[in-house]
Design a protein that fits this description.
Structural class: alpha/beta
Number of strands: 10
Distance between the termini: 33 Å
Strand content: 25-35%
Shape: globular
Largest sheet: 6 strands, mixed
CATH superfamily: P-loop containing nucleotide triphosphate hydrolases
Number of domains: 1
Length: about 230
């Protein structure tokens, strides 16, 4: 569904991505791993359209979207859960979820039951402000907000960062559920190796803006990957 082909990305004179390629398909989880500062978030920003690429191409469902605006990518079915969550702290949980209505047709502007099934705490806290939630609850809210948009591609940028173990397990179960539906491609950016390994169907490891290892879970050399992502 998604094909990132030989993408370069610059911030001014600094090159953040060098010939990066990635594919993501429905019913599969593609994990992007690497240390801090190697280009993982830049790759996610390129996929979301938040940063223009300077070379290569990004195709979504057979269409070149390299120049497409972020809001048009959202309408095309691409949803991003950013690093740091970026929920609206002064809005209630319900209002935060409703911001996911933006790319939807009027008839689809409601929260799917699956959001509350995956993250029951959100239904219990609909009237609470987003800023009053714990970090883990905010992460669940950010994922729920993305799911409200009915995405066909879900991009999760380090969803376990700073999250307590019990909620990491909840997020893992949610990803497994979404994969089993077979309708959504999932890209997971992650430094927590065990979490990524257990969920990945396909993976790639980045270093200095380049892909240095890639393959499937079955072909993964765990020692080589751990060496590349160890701090």
């Amino acid at each position: 569904m998604l094909n990132v082909a030989n993408v370069d990305l610059h911030y001014g004179a600094a090159q953040a991505l060098r010939g990066v390629s990635l594919r993501a398909a429905a019913g599969r989880v593609t994990c992007v791993m690497g240390r801090n500062g190697v280009g993982k978030t830049s790759l996610m920003r390129a996929i979301a359209g938040q940063q223009p690429i300077s070379g290569g191409a990004i195709e979504w469902r057979g269409r070149d979207i390299s120049a497409l605006r972020p809001y048009d990518r959202a309408r095309a079915g691409i949803a991003v859960v950013p690093q740091g969550r970026e929920i609206f702290p002064q809005l209630t949980v319900e209002e935060n979820l409703m911001t996911g209505y933006a790319p939807l047709k009027r008839a689809d502007r409601y929260v799917p039951d699956a959001v509350y099934d995956l993250f029951p705490v959100l239904k219990d806290m609909l009237r609470r402000r987003g800023g009053d939630l714990s970090g883990g609850q905010q992460q669940q809210l950010a994922i729920g907000r993305a799911l409200v948009t009915r995405p066909k591609l879900l991009v999760l940028d380090e969803p376990t960062e700073g999250i307590q173990p019990s909620i990491i397990k909840d997020i893992g179960r949610a990803i497994v559920f979404l994969r089993r539906q077979g309708e959504m491609a999932i890209i997971l950016v992650e430094q927590y190796f065990d979490f990524a390994r257990d969920l990945a169907d396909d993976f790639l490891v980045m270093d200095r803006g380049e892909v240095v290892i890639s393959g499937t879970r079955e072909t993964m050399d765990e020692a080589a990957v751990r060496a590349r992502i160890a701090v």
